[in-house]
Amino acid sequence: MKRFSFIAAGFIFAAVFAVSAFGQAAVPAGKIGLVNVNAFADEKAGIMKFKNALTSLDPEFKPAYDELRTMDARRQVLAKEIQDGQKPAPAGVPAKAPVNLQAKVDEFQTLELTMKRKQEDLKVKSERRYQQVVGPVYNDILKAMNDYAKAKGYAVILDGAKLEESGILIGFDDKFDVTKDFIVFYNARPAGTATTATPK
Predict the structure, then answer these.
(1) 118, 68 Cβ separation under 8 angstroms
(2) Most exposed: 83, 128, 174, 192, by fewest CB within 10 Å?
(3) Is the same domain home to 112 and 199?
(4) Coil, strand, or helix at residue 49?
(5) Rounded distance, CA 137 to CA 56, Å?
(6) Average pLDDT of each block of 10 consecutive residues along the chain (200 residues)?
(7) Dist CA 186 CA 172 (whole Å)
(8) Residue 159's pLDDT is what?
(9) Shared domain check, 199 and 188
């Protein structure tokens, strides 16, 4: 199992930013920008507020992930012992007692069921806390993205990483990548109203 991290483990959002011109009778033709939302969590060049929200969850769930990692290590040991125990004993070597092998099989099956239950519980809890802690920051980033698009003259800003992942985006001119410029824009803004919730 990989080291637990809300940045590395897959809770980083991937959304499509579509920016509309509010309060206008007609939307004029404008530029199209691409942004890589994965870069928002970059350790050095990302959005500090977003990265801090993600990393604040690490210690909260680290004990649960450490427990699962320990259980997984035991599961792998049992799997090897069961596999070895099912092999024919070499000539002249007494075969292992079937009862011992069955005990390991029982432990392995119980361990797998326990791990599955704990993983499901952890998934529900971590997703809820992600919404509580990162959600407000995410909404603040969306608002800032709209402000950025209007200020810079972009009609639409799309999530380039998501489009590339889905196979829709297969090539583009780097001059349309606004990721770095937006991150600078966002980090320079005064502290927003985004707040995080305490654990319940």
Answers:
(1) yes
(2) 174
(3) no
(4) helix
(5) 13
(6) 44 42 46 88 91 94 96 96 81 65 93 97 96 95 94 86 66 77 92 51
(7) 24
(8) 77
(9) yes
Residues 70 and 123 in one domain: yes
Q: What is the DSSP string of 4-36?
A: P-TTTTT-----------TT-SS----EEEEE-
Extract the tokens encoding 123. 């998934």
30 and 43 both lie in a single domain: yes
In this structure, are residues 133 and 53 in contact, taking their beta carbons and an 8 Å threshold? yes
Cα gap 184→200, rounded to integer Å? 34
* CA geometry: angle 185, 187, 192, nearest 5 deg: 105
CB 89 within 8 A of CB 95: yes
Q: By residue range, what is the domain housing residue 19?
A: 1-57+134-200
81-90: long-range pairs with CB below 8 Å, 24+ = 82/108
- Which of 107, 132, 157 is where one domain is finished? 132
- Are 164 and 21 contacting, i.e. CB atoms less than 8 angstroms apart? no
- DSSP SS3 for 62: helix
Domain count along the chain: 2
- Residues 105, 151: one domain? no
Between the alpha carbon of residue 44 and those of residues 47, 143, 162, the distances in Å are 9, 23, 22
Cβ(34)–Cβ(160) under 8 Å? yes
Residue that is written with structure tokens 């699962």 in the block: 68
Domain identity same for 51 and 30: yes
pTM above 0.90, yes or no: no
Closest by Cα among 122, 106, 10 to 62 = 122
